[in-house]
Design a protein that fits this description.
Helix content: over 70%
Structural class: mainly alpha
Distance between the termini: 42 Å
Strand content: under 5%
Largest sheet: none
Oligomer: single chain
Shape: globular
Length: 138
Amino acid sequence: MLWLLDFFIVICLALLFLEDAKNREVSLYILLAMAVLLFCRSFVLLESPLKILEFWLLNTLVFVVELLLLKMYFSYRNKMVEPIINRYLGLGDVLFISLLGLSFSTYNFVVFLLFSLSTALAASFFLIRYKKIESKSI
């Protein structure tokens, strides 16, 4: 059962990637399907809807704190209150990361966020330094 859920999750991820690469937007239906699949996968592993809800709420809280810190950084840098959603981050990105909170424990979610943000930061520094691309954001 678990491998079947994983298979459909990978298909949803591939569809999200292709749609984002092609149109720079993602379908809400794919995100909803992925949410259901991730919840079912977590339920098969944990067998406790309350534990899944607890992990998801804590992970969402961690992500909201991160978004607030990012908003404070850009507001301080630009000396005015800056909206970060639809300017620096897309709504689909925010929904996708909050959906990922369904599939991680809180500790693993924090590790995932730190690793992915560190990788993105290192990649952007590499591209700026070696490709001579002008930095438009962070």
